[in-house]
Amino acid sequence: GMTQFHPSPDRVDVSVVCPFFNEAGILEHAIRQMLAQLRTLPGTWELIAVNDGSTDDSAEIADAVAHQNPRLRVLGYPRNQGRGHALHTGILAARGNIIVTTEIDLSWGETVVHDLVDAMTRWPEADIVVASPNVPGGGYRNVPAKRVWISRLGNRVIRLCMANAVTMNTGMTRAYRRDVIQLLPLTEPGKEFHLEVILKATSFGYRIREVPAVLEWKQHKRQGQVVKRTSSSKVNRLIVSHSLFSIFANPVRYVWLMSFAFFATGGFFVAAAFVLFYLRKVSAYTMLFGLSVSIVGLLFFVLGVVLKQGNIIQRELWLMQRARLQPGSGARETVDRTSDSEETHRPV
């Protein structure tokens, strides 16, 4: 069967969630490597592999490994829905007090799960810990320079746009406290999911910490062919969508910045007009210009107030959505149902 659920509702210490899509060439080796790493974790754990609608025999391969390893659970659905949808599916099914999401092929380093779990233990106040190549001690290995540059620049843009953003907002390798992540109202099916989590978590005042990690692109030879990574056009599209997402998330800062700039300029010209008047020079035009610029500043300020109200309303809506997700409200079944109905409408 495609989806294998283990009905026992027992809690475990750590759940590791890894999505996969058409990875038949590397999947068995990757899962076995991941399981070998997890066996050295202190405490109890489970590995949740989520089949994001693979069209090759990835699902069968994963199921075969699961039959020999009761701690591996394979979840899935028939149609490819995107990285975010796969992660959310795994997160909602997870039984661990700490939920780690990462790449199945350990491209974030052999010990990345241990590092994240250690950080969660070391920092009990942290709600989310992000693995970042952009902090001291982290880095990139075997990743084309252009991609490294793009990632660093993209994350800078996001930090400019979003207060409290971290140095790596676009990576999936993270650890979450179960109650925090399962109760976030998340809707992005694609890679914007990573950013949506950071955005909503900061909006709710959750604490996010980072640990250094090295991201390595592993050139897997699949039937003698070297696997190609995401094309750069796709990357550029991702950057645009991520940047837009973060700019829309919190535009107030720019608007108020511009408001301040216009006010300052207007004030300068009004002051200059008074000086000119005092010196008995022509001051009317300078005064008119100063007042006009100040009025534009006032308009930007009013726009900022409206946007701020919008942000507050948005946050209230998220809080209401989160309240619907609280255990016992029967909302989680609804969430699953809506994603099923979307499945039929979303173009393939």
Distance between the termini: 23 Å
Order of helices and strands: EHEHEHEHEEHEHHEEEEHHHH
Largest sheet: spatial strand order:
3-2-1-4-7-5-8
- Report the biggest beta sheet as strand number plus sense, adding barrel if it closes: 7 strands, mixed
Strands, total number? 11
Radius of gyration: 25 Å
- Find the structural class using helix and strand composition: alpha/beta
Structure explained in plain terms:
The chain is an alpha/beta fold and 348 residues long. It has helices spanning 27-38, 58-68, 83-93, 112-122, 145-161, 178-182, 192-203, 232-249, 252-278, 284-325, 331-345, and strands at 12-20, 45-52, 72-77, 96-101, 128-132, 139-141, 174-177, 208-212, 214-216, 221-222, 225-226. The strands form three sheets. The protein has a seven-stranded mixed β-sheet with strand order 3-2-1-4-7-5-8, sandwiched between helices. A two-stranded parallel ribbon has the order 6-9. Strands 10-11 form a two-stranded antiparallel sheet. Helix 5 runs parallel beside helix 8 (232-249) and helix 7 (192-203) runs parallel beside helix 8 (232-249). It is elongated, with a radius of gyration of 25 Å. It starts with 11 loop residues before the first strand and ends with a helix. Residues 1-7, 221-229 and 329-348 have low confidence and may be disordered.
